[in-house]
């Protein structure tokens, strides 16, 4: 378990980061082009209701709002949410403070759930993905971006050092582990794409999955 998979430690960390977050973190780890390419894989309709889990300062919601009317953002950190809510262009989004592992929404509320760069901090990723599944309508979609567990490189000691640090701090998974993870939370048809920022093109795993039409999974 990564050191930052502790809910209170994560909350304190993102409370502290909030004032400078937008200037540093998205461009470093979750750049606009990466987020947009992932969102483009979704089949969104303008009337869809979408939930962004771990929405932070609203970077992802900014991409989603051009495609759909109703975006809800949930995050553990109030200061992150306050930054998001203060952005004039996000005035139509609804923000809630809460934990991914206990979503404060009724069953089958959303057409789609997205979560970018948040699963790495979740204390119980399977439970959180089960919660995401519960609040999604039958036939709905999941988009999840997390850290890829890369194989050790025989020629790149810098990457191996980065991965050693990431392993100590975060929850990570490779394609196979990602498939097991989303399936065990009830999702079907997972697909994965390895992606990442310019300095780490294999740092990120972008996963999509579906909620079965019957809702029986
Ligand atoms: C790296 S930021 C990503 C923010 C945003 N998705 C983006 O792309 O800019 C991770 C966010 O996940 C939130 N987070 C971490 N653990 C969470 C949890 N258990 N429940 C809800 N939000 C969580 C953090 O507070 C933080 O805002």
How would the blueprint of this fold be written?
Elements: H1 7-17, H2 21-29, H3 32-39, E1 49-53, H4 59-64, E2 70-75, H5 78-85, E3 94-97, E4 110-116, H6 125-135, E5 136-148, H7 157-169, E6 172-173, H8 175-184, E7 188-195, E8 204-210
Parallel strand pairs: 1-2, 1-4, 2-3, 4-5, 5-6
Antiparallel strand pairs: 5-8, 7-8
Bound molecules: S-adenosylmethionine.
What would you note in describing this structure?
The protein has 217 residues and is an alpha/beta fold. It has one domain: Vaccinia Virus protein VP39 (Rossmann fold). 35% of the residues lie in helices and 24% in strands. It has eight helices and eight strands. Strands 1, 2, 3, 4, 5, 6, 7 and 8 form an eight-stranded mixed beta sheet that branches. Helix 7 links the parallel strand 5 and strand 6. The chain is globular. The model has no long low-confidence stretch (mean pLDDT 92). Bound molecules: S-adenosylmethionine.
Which descriptors would you attach to this protein?
binds S-adenosylmethionine, Rossmann fold, methyltransferase, 217 residues, globular, transferase, Methyltransf_11, 8 helices, alpha/beta
Strand content range: 15-25%
- Specify the structural class: alpha/beta
CATH homologous group name? Vaccinia Virus protein VP39
The residue-averaged pLDDT reads 92
CA-CA gap between termini: 27 Å
User: Could you estimate the helical fraction of the residues in percent?
Assistant: 25-40%
User: How many domains, as an integer?
Assistant: 1
Give the radius of gyration.
Answer: 16 Å
- What is the helix tally? 8
Oligomer state of the chains in this structure: single chain
The beta-strand count equals 8
- CATH architecture grouping: 3-Layer(aba) Sandwich
CATH class: Alpha Beta
What string gives the helices and strands in order? HHHEHEHEEHEHEHEE
Spans of 5+ residues with little confidence (pLDDT < 50)?
none
Give me the CATH fold name: Rossmann fold
Outline, from the CA principal axes? globular
Give the biggest beta sheet.
8 strands, mixed
GO molecular function, one term: 2-methyl-6-phytyl-1,4-benzoquinone methyltransferase activity
Pfam families: Methyltransf_11
Domain MPBQ/MBSQ family SAM-binding methyltransferase profile: 2-210
Organism: Natronorubrum aibiense
